């Protein structure tokens, strides 16, 4: 803390030091490089999803999900319908306190349009053991075109804290041959 004023009253009108100018230039150029790398990695990398988002209402999304569940449920598991929708179709998963509903059964090497939406508040879609993460916001659906390339059992974990039952919010996706 300065108890006395600086010796030079106009202390800020100093030329910028050379090292600082170099640092600002390097940081700025690096920022530019990374900006274009983001676009490049979207196409060339294996991490970034080309997902889409659309406005929805909770009622409309529930209706579409229920229609799929009614048509394509093949069995039940712990009170959850296991749905096997036809390859190439639109598939739905609801996020709500505290479940991912229903359980999906997809076929390997077939493409699906996966619609994800929350009926209450924010949840996080994390597909394990792959590294797919999406924020699921109320009022919007996230649509991902996916082609599972490995059979097995996948877990959907909520990775956005959503209240007392957050840790129990686990869903399932089966990929069958
Ligand atoms: Cu849903 Cu945490």
Mean pLDDT: 92
What is the chain-wise order of helices and strands? Answer: HEHEEEEEEEEEEE
Helix content: 10-25%
Overall outline: elongated
Uncertain stretches = none
Q: Report the radius of gyration as a whole number of Å.
A: 24 Å
What small-molecule ligands were found? dinuclear copper ion
Broad structural category: alpha+beta
Strand content bin: 35-45%
Distance between the termini: 70 Å
DSSP E strands, number: 12
How would you portray this structure in words?
- This protein is of the alpha+beta class and 177 residues long.
- The protein is 24% helix and 38% strand.
- The chain has 2 helices and 12 strands, in the order H-E-H-E-E-E-E-E-E-E-E-E-E-E.
- The chain has helices spanning 18-44, 58-72, and strands at residues 52-55, 73-77, 80-83, 90-96, 99-101, 103-107, 112-118, 123-128, 132-136, 140-146, 152-158, 170-176.
- The strands form 2 sheets. The protein has a 7-stranded mixed sheet with strand order 2-3-6-12-11-8-9.
- Strand 4 and strand 5 form a beta hairpin.
- The model has no long low-confidence stretch (mean pLDDT 92).
- The structure holds dinuclear copper ion (CUA).
- Residues 98, 123, 158, 160-162, 166, 169 line the site of dinuclear copper ion.
Question: What's the SSE blueprint?
Answer:
Elements: H1 18-44, E1 52-55, H2 58-72, E2 73-77, E3 80-83, E4 90-96, E5 99-101, E6 103-107, E7 112-118, E8 123-128, E9 132-136, E10 140-146, E11 152-158, E12 170-176
The structure holds dinuclear copper ion.
